[in-house]
Amino acid sequence: MSKIACIIVEDEPLAARVLADYIADVPFLELCASFRDALLATEYLRTHRVDLLFLDIHLPKLKGMAFLRTLAEPPAVIVTTAYHQYAVEGFELNVTDYLLKPFGFERFLVAVNKVRGGVEEKELVPAAASPKDHVYLTVQKKKVKLMFADILYIESQREYIRIVTSRGVLLSKMGTHDIEALLPPEQFRRIHRSFIVSLARIDAYTADEVEVGGQRLPVGRGYRDRLGGL
Description:
GO molecular function, one term: DNA binding
Strand order of the largest sheet: 2-1-3-4-5
InterPro entries: CheY-like_superfamily (IPR011006), LytTR_DNA-bd_dom (IPR007492), Sig_transdc_resp-reg_receiver (IPR001789), WalR-like (IPR039420)
Oligomer: single chain
Distance between the termini: 42 Å
Number of domains: 2
Protein name: LytTR family DNA-binding domain-containing protein
CATH topology of the largest domain: Rossmann fold
Keywords: DNA-binding, Phosphoprotein
Order of helices and strands: EHEHEHEHEHEEEEEHEEEEE
Shape: elongated
CATH architecture of the largest domain: 3-Layer(aba) Sandwich
Number of strands: 15
């Protein structure tokens, strides 16, 4: 089995250092990166293979559980926190284990061995041939399946996003950067700080606007070059 690629998302330097030391002592683990901010980790997850995420709950900007909900296909997750009241919520989000700070090396090893077993099982199963075609988003406290093919465009509305689809309109409490991280980049493009469009749904466009589903959407100055090659 190849080494399990890990990242740490932890804003406390001492806690991050302890995790890094523990990881270094386990032969089948490899620490690839460490972040103090969940938003920076999001970008890394988009472009790198990660098998295991060590995640603190109380993070700046975006809290750990909220960050976990934005991930369409999260790696194995081990939550590390000093607050036991989040354990139930963590297990509802399918985290592999929940480590209460301070924890020793033996308890850490129990947790990562659970991940090791899961990774070994995955390596025995052939990867699916078809790419992911949907994502689940929280809409009015429910997880709603959103097919990529149904999306016309997405509009930012402060702390919410308005998703216009061929089936209707959905509102979800998240930012455009968060939803953009979940969308396949070959199918969607940001044309404005407030708008993301489905490339397949564009009816017409100029340097200043895009027509999608009968609506005219503005193209921001800094995004005009992104329409090249359509």
